[in-house]
């Protein structure tokens, strides 16, 4: 299927590894020019070179830390310089530290809100006028299955990513008539370094072998396995495609059936 996005320009946040990188690779394979962003210059440079060597869309990169208040302006300026604008914005951020709701401090909540919520909204607000003027745009925010079914010991993530659900739905209603779609994509247990880190933290917290933790996690997934990054990225690529022009205001799951709610 032709996704009708060849020649489009995409910014993918937190794309030095994991889900962000997988999405950038999937978009480049469809002929989209992509701007990678993240904190590791070495990884970003290597990933951009690998994408460019494969052909398709070209890749550029910017080293940026979302904890830096100036990061949004820097990403915006890099997108103008390296891509000439933004047609597709994939909002993706790293996860906050694990912990329970009763242990959530105001200072940590405010710090993580700035990174996981405020930066996403600020960058999207910058990108929207160009999308609306062009009559075509895609905003896709990567969240977590925890916004539907809270994940134990990830109270910060459950709380902050849920704020983005209300924002995303509200925004989708405001810009749909301008040809801009706004959706959210929820990963379940997709096998990334982040999931390995969470499994290790759970093993330490419960004093269980990590293999036992993983076996228990797989047992709770109807598909019986962790997802693959490429599987997740394919769903993301469709949601930002020309083919998905009538899909907006949606919260889409890619979780192997792990979320128990309807």
List keywords for this structure.
SDR_fam; Rossmann fold; 7-stranded parallel β-sheet; alpha/beta; 47% helix; single chain; 8 helices; 262 residues; 2 domains
Can you tell me about this structure?
It contains eight helices and seven strands; from the N terminus they run E-H-E-H-E-H-E-H-E-H-E-H-H-H-E. By secondary structure, it is α/β, with parallel strands linked by helices. The protein folds into two domains: 9-188 and 231-248, NAD(P)-binding Rossmann-like Domain (Rossmann fold, 3-Layer(aba) Sandwich), CATH 3.40.50.720; 191-226. A seven-stranded parallel β-sheet has the order 3-2-1-4-5-6-7, with helices on both faces. Helix 1 crosses helix 8 (229-239), helix 3 packs parallel to helix 4 (106-134) and helix 4 (106-134) runs parallel beside helix 5 (155-175). The longest helix is centred in the middle third of the chain and has 29 residues, at 106-134. The chain is globular and about 50 Å long.
